[in-house]
Amino acid sequence: MTPDEPLIPCSEAVERLWEYLDRTLSAEDQARVEQHLAFCRRCCGELEFARELRAFLATAAADEIPPDVRERLQGFVRELGG
Ligand SMILES: [Zn+2]
Description:
The chain is an all-alpha fold. It has one domain (10-80). Helix content is 71%, strand content 0%. Helix 3 (27-39) packs across helix 4 (41-59). The radius of gyration is 14 Å and the shape is globular. The protein starts with 9 loop residues before the first helix and ends with a helix. 9% of the residues are buried. Zinc ion (ZN) binds next to helix 1 and helix 4. Zinc ion (ZN) binds at residues 10, 13, 36, 40, 42-43.
């Protein structure tokens, strides 16, 4: 990765948030996501949300997600679709 390489777009960063949290990305992709998060406030918010949701899912069945959280997740997914 060169210093001149442009940041990845938000769509790509958000798409990789879960893998980033799971640390299943390659070191290079991990660095790209980190680089994006360092500059993008919006995706930092998404990262916090994904982290919270992931912690929640670790302790509860998916069908027990409260409606407000489910709605937020659906909005999140819709946004990804553009
Ligand atoms: Zn972003």
